[in-house]
Amino acid sequence: MDDDPHGVERPEWPPLREVEQFALHNRNLRLTCRRCGTVRILSGHGVWWLFRQRRWNGHVNQLARRFRCAACFERSGIQVSPDVQATRDHPTGDPLPDPDEREWKRLVSRYRS
């Protein structure tokens, strides 16, 4: 959700349903651990490229299945899936590789037509 200058939250429009839409709309993914509250922000472009290379399902309902909280796993060996939200905040932690320029242009041109 985006913040309105008047302090009112409004829903994302158009709703982002696929990981490629996060990349195209320049949104990043905020991953918040459900157990310990650790937050990690990943680049939407990098996540799209990762999912594309591995041929994973990029639907927003499937995103959390591919990520785990590293802090919880190190402490107790438990694998916890995070909550996923769209954000405009800058990525944190180690960056994911950016997409190949040719593949990126192909994606952009597909959505422009």
Report on the architecture of this protein.
This protein is of the alpha+beta class and 113 residues long. It has one domain (2-94). Helices cover 32% and strands 18% of the residues. The protein has four helices and five strands, in the order ββαββααβα. The chain has helices at residues 19-24, 44-54, 70-76, 101-112; strands spanning 2-3, 9-10, 28-33, 39-42, 82-87. A three-stranded antiparallel β-sheet has the order 4-3-5. It has a two-stranded antiparallel sheet with strand order 1-2. A hairpin with a 5-residue loop joins strand 3 (28-33) and strand 4. The chain is elongated and about 50 Å long. The mean pLDDT is 86.
Keywords:
three-stranded antiparallel β-sheet, alpha+beta, elongated, about 110 residues, 4 helices, two-stranded antiparallel sheet
Secondary structure layout plus pairing:
Layout: E1 2-3, E2 9-10, H1 19-24, E3 28-33, E4 39-42, H2 44-54, H3 70-76, E5 82-87, H4 101-112
Antiparallel strand pairs: 1-2, 3-4, 3-5
In short:
32% of the residues lie in helices and 18% in strands.
Global morphology: elongated
Structural class: alpha+beta
Distance between the termini: 27 Å
Please indicate the percent range of residues in DSSP E strands (runs of 2 or more): 15-25%
Give a quick account of the main beta sheet: strands, pairing sense, barrel closure.
3 strands, antiparallel
Counted by DSSP, the helix tally is 4
List the uncertain runs: none
Major β-sheet strand ordering:
4-3-5
Overall number of strands: 5
Pattern of helices and strands: EEHEEHHEH
Average pLDDT, rounded to a whole number, is: 86
Number of domains: 1
Q: How large, in whole angstroms, is the Cα Rg?
A: 15 Å
Q: Helical content, roughly?
A: 25-40%
